[in-house]
Amino acid sequence: MARGVMNDGREGFTLIEVMVALAIIAIALTSVFKMHGQTLSMSHSSRFYTMAPLLCQKKLSEIEQEELTKPLDESGDFGESFPGFSWRVTVERVESEALDEPFTLSRIDVTVSDEAGGMTHQLRSYRYVEEK
Fold first, then answer.
1. How much is the pTM?
2. Contacts for 115-119 with beta carbons within 8 Å, 24 or more apart?
3. Rounded CA gap, 113 and 122, in Å?
4. How far apart are CA 9 and CA 21, in angstroms?
5. What three-state secondary structure class fits 16?
6. Among the ranges 3-7, 34-38, 101-105, 116-120, which has the highest mean pLDDT value?
7. How far apart, in whole angstroms, are the C-alpha atoms of residue 43 and residue 99?
8. Strand 120-129's sheet: what is its strand order?
9. What is the C-alpha to C-alpha distance for residues 90 and 55, in angstroms, rounded to an integer?
10. Exposed (0-12), middle (13-18) or buried (19+): which is 105, by Cβ within 10 Å?
C-alpha cells in the first residue's frame, strides 16, 4: 500500500487506506469463520453416517438373538461407548402371501438417532416365524 505524506512531513497511512484494509480483513475473516462452521457440520454428519449403520447392525444382531414371539417396542441409548446416539426397535408380525401359502414374518425396524443433530438412520429386516 502506498504511504501518504502528511502536511508536517511525517509519513503514515491515510484514513481511507486503513478503512479499506479493515474491510478486506473483515471479508476474509467472515469467509474463514463460515468455512470453519461448514467443516464442523460436515465432520459431524460424516461421523453420524459412518457410525449409524454399524450401530444399527449391532442392535439388529442383539435383537435377532432373542426369540421374537411377541410384538416389541423398545428404545434406549448406547451408553458411554457411543455418547449421543440412541436407538429404537420395533418388532411386528406381518403376513406374507408371496408364495402359494401364507406365512408369518417378524418385521424388525431399528432406528439410530443422533440426539444433537436430529439425524436418523433406519434399518429394516424380516425374520421367518415358525408356526407352533
1. 0.67
2. 115/84, 115/85, 115/86, 116/44, 116/84, 117/44, 117/45, 117/48, 119/45, 119/48, 119/49, 119/52
3. 9
4. 23
5. helix
6. 34-38
7. 46
8. 72-77, 85-96, 103-114, 120-129
9. 16
10. middle
What are the domain boundaries of the chain?
11-129
The cell numbers describing 96, all together, are 406374507
pLDDT at 1: 47
Q: Which DSSP category does 78 fall into?
A: -
Q: What is the pLDDT of residues 71-98, one digit of tens each?
A: 889 999 988 988 989 999 999 988 877 7
- Helix or strand holding residue 29 (H, E): helix 15-64
Quickly tell me which residue has 501518504 as its cell.
4
